[in-house]
Amino acid sequence: MKFANELTRNILFWVQEKRWLIIIALLGLVMYQLPYPDGISPAGYRTLILGIIVISLIITEPVPLPAVALLIAVLEVAFHIAPAAEVAKTYMNDSVFFIMGSLMMAVAIVHQGLDTRLALGIIQLTGNKVKHIVLGFTCISALLSSFVGEHTVVALMLPVGLSLVRNCRKNKPIPNLTALILFSIAYGSTVGSIGTPSGGARNAIMLEYWRTITDGGVTLTYFQWIIMAYPMVIIGMLSTTFLLQLAFKPEFKSMDTAIRRLKIHVAHKGKFSGNELLTILIFAIVFFCWIFLNERYGLGIIAIGGAFLYMATGLVEWKQVSRDTNWGVILLFAGAISLGVQMKNTGTALWIGQSLMNQFSPFIEQFSVIPYLLNIFLTTLLSNIMSSSGTVAVLGPITLSMGGDPAYMGMTTAISSAFGYFSAIAAPACMIIYSSGLVKMTDFLKAGWRMAIMSTITLLLIYKFYWPLIIGFTNFK
Amino acid sequence: MKFLIAIKNTKKESKNILEIGCKIAEGFSADLTICYIGKQSKALIEGDVNLARKTLSEWNIHHPGLEVLEWAFNILKEKGFAPNSDFDVDNLVEEKGRIRMVLSKTTNYQIGLVLREGDLLSELNKEVKHSDFDIVIMGSPHRKRMINKISQFLDTSIFFVKNFNPNWNYKILLCVDDSRATKRAVILSTRISKQFDAEITSLTVSKTSLFGKGYRNAHIWAERYLQRIGIPFNSKLLSGNPVEVFVNEAGEDHIIIMGKAKGNEFLKFIWGSKPIHTAQRANCPVLLVN
User: Fold this and answer.
1) Which of A257, A370, B42, B187 has the most CB within a 10 Å radius?
2) pLDDT at position A477, please?
3) B176 with B134, same domain?
4) Which positions in chain A touch B50 (Cβ < 8 Å)?
């Protein structure tokens, strides 16, 4: 009796721990048995089931992410969506190289301790006034994250911000000033990450989807991306500074003591070391290669070339790169891109896109902006639930098939995936400032709704008036 | 014996949990482990978060969980529980999904500090299995379902510290029935009673006015045991809905001690049990004895 009870308890515990896995498996099984909807092929329907399974597994996380990536490959073959050789091919492409290279370079750059240099630079630029510091943090986070990637900037900037907040604490609590400083880094790096393809993995994934999923294959160079997206970054960083100060009125206007303490903390660094200069030089080389050579060699090959240079020059050891790089995410993005390609090949993406658009068909003729609005809404919603980087991977093929210009729709998806302002899980910076206990979940909502409205309006204005203006600079049409 | 105190922040509630936990552990000369279980980042951004945490630690800005543990360690030190050493992050050891601080042993018992990240129930379960704890002391979760799961799935005694006020003189409400764990609950209650200098009320409740043999025997056994130990007590036999009677009798100034329920685990998972419902509805600390 005792043994039976213990066994039941262990089974129940396993069931409640893996409840999402069981629910998702049952859902998949039920869907598999249901008759196919009209307008979709059997392979397309099975791809749809796989897509639902993958999104649900990523959101609920009942199994490790790399396991989801493996499941995609297994089910693509088992569901007869594509033969094994084709599945293997879709798992590795330039975007996956790019994500891998960027993550490895981030480890190398962060390892050099450039954060203290950055702190000194910011202090010299901004001075002691709170409003200048907020502007400085937002702009520097945004500018840097658009080139070196959000994850690198977060690792470099957050220590500076958190240290400033800690040194600033006086007798009375300063929740608004704390939120102001921390959100300026978190939102600043998020706003900036859309500025160039190297700003985040999601941008590279969209480039891959354009290349492989759209009819005729849309291509966009590194520089063309900057032309299209950078106005959004510039408007974004200025309005972020304004909106944050509106949401969080600081308790005092100057941070003399905190700045003095920060100066003492970073003063011992002395002049630039050879390693630091070499780190910056290698990144500069990579950056220029991305701009001038990406059409010839691809962003990914250049990125892993940069990672090679960091290791070859001894700036970072393989052991360190291997330990600090999130290989699971690389594998997951590889799997998600493979699924995206199959969604295109089997017609699933088109079917979902058209089904969504059919709901709004009476209005689309009058308001051509509707697909873009729906795109922004879906992307923002999912990035707040699942994190911004995963959103483009799973949503990209669908938004590209929702009607509207695929180039503009893709850009809208990539940009609005950065609108994860409402939750702590959308971006690493948000997660860290939330887990520090210094900001509350309600602070995300307090600042987030303003940011979301501002970002959506800016994006729609850019789509309507700016992108048609610069059509000559891009090879979209 | 080994006790585990789970805390989540440096607020007053956590301080109260620490105070009551230390007091009880003192009575048993038990080894005491303080455990912080933090929320885990989404796996998609976990790598980025870890990278940022590395640079943060170079600026002496550590994982928020470590700050909570340092705060707890300092409280233990103030009360003379922890060794008179500093909280040194260099003494952290990473092992099997948990981070532990290596601390020297005091004369009587060992203090441990552990940091975990992930789902509360799953991490608590792993920690209990890892070190074979006798009692887990924690705040009462806001979600009733979580109380149900913790009570059922943690294979140990659980002390839910709810509405504890360190300035009050608590009495003990010992709930006696025919369950296997009642005897252990009676024995534990005497030790805790001594520690709190608290009077015990031994209470047996039957749904009808008739008390079955099992209930009567358990009640008599508890009375005899308390008499033998020499603890001041009074005993009551009441009829009514047991959970309602326990909660009403306890009010806010009692510590309820009762055995975990026997019976079918599946039904317990769906419907709960008397101890689980009592822990969910009581307005005072509740100890469920395994």
Assistant:
1) B42
2) 46
3) no
4) 324, 326
Residue A309: both structure tokens together = 């240079």
More confident residue, A309 or A432: A309
For residues B109 and B187, state if they share a domain: no
How many domains in chain B? 2
- Same-domain check for residues B81 and B194: no
3-class DSSP state of B173: strand
B15 in any annotated domain: yes
Structural domain range at position B238: 171-289
Q: Are residues B189 and B86 in the same domain?
A: no
This complex has an ipTM of: 0.85
Is A66 near chain B, with CB under 8 Å? no
Contact between chains at A435 and B266 (C-beta distance less than 8 A): no
Most confident of A74-88, A382-396, B85-99, B258-272: A74-88
On whether any CB of chain B is under 8 Å from the CB of A428, the answer is yes
Q: Helix A222-247 to helix A441-461 angle, to the nearest 10 degrees?
A: 130
Asked if the C-beta of B270 comes within 8 angstroms of chain A's C-beta atoms, the answer is: no
Domain CATH number, residue B69: 3.40.50.620
Kindly state whether residues B249 and B181 are assigned to the same domain. yes
Residues 6+ apart with CB under 8 A from A4: none
Residues B116 and B242 in one domain: no
Residue type, A72: I
Contact A322/B at CB under 8 A: no
Helix-strand-coil split of chain B, %, nearest 5: 45, 25, 30
What local confidence, expressed as pLDDT, does residue B45 receive? 81
In tens, the pLDDT along A262-312 reads 888 777 777 778 888 999 999 999 999 998 998 888 889 999 999 999 999
Phi/psi at B18 (5° precision): -60, -45
Q: What percent of chain B has pLDDT over 90?
A: 38
A166 and B42 within 8 Å at the Cβ level: the answer is: no
Alpha carbon distance A122, A184 (integer Å): 13
Residues A5, B39: C-beta atoms closer than 8 Å: no
Question: Which of B119, B139, B159 corresponds to the end of one domain?
Answer: B139
Q: Quick check: A2 contacting B, CB < 8 Å?
A: no
Measured distance CA(B191)–CA(A256) in Å, rounded: 56
DSSP A447-461: HHHHHHHHHHHHHHH
Q: Which residue reads 């233990």 in tokens?
A: B76
8 A C-beta contact, residue B239 and residue B208: yes
Residue B49 contacts A, CB cutoff 8 Å: yes
Query: Do B191 and B260 belong together in one domain?
Result: yes
In a domain, B263, yes or no: yes
> What value, to the nearest 5°, has the Cα angle with vertex A41 and ends A37 and A45?
60
Chosen domain end from B139, B161, B188: B139
Query: Which residues does chain B have within 8 Å of residue A326's beta carbon, measured at their own beta carbons?
Result: 46-48, 50
CA-to-CA distance for A339 and A345, rounded, in angstroms? 10
Strands (E), B12-91: 31-38
**pLDDT tens for each residue of A343-399:** 989 999 889 988 888 888 777 777 788 889 999 999 999 888 877 778 898 899 999
Nearest to A324 among B51, B59, B152 (CB): B51
Number of continuous H segments (helices) and E segments (strands) in chain B: 10, 12
Tell if the CB–CB gap between A151 and B9 is shorter than 8 Å: no
- B68 in any annotated domain: yes
* DSSP codes joined into one string, A127-151: -SBHHHHHHHHHHHHHHHHHHH-HH
Is residue B24, in this structure, part of any structural domain at all? yes
* Average pLDDT score over residue span A119-143: 89
- Tell me the whole-structure pTM to 2 decimals: 0.85
Nearest by CB to residue A428, choosing from B52, B121, B149, is B52
DSSP state of B270: H
For residue B116, the SS3 value is: strand
Co-location of B34 and B109 in the same domain:
yes
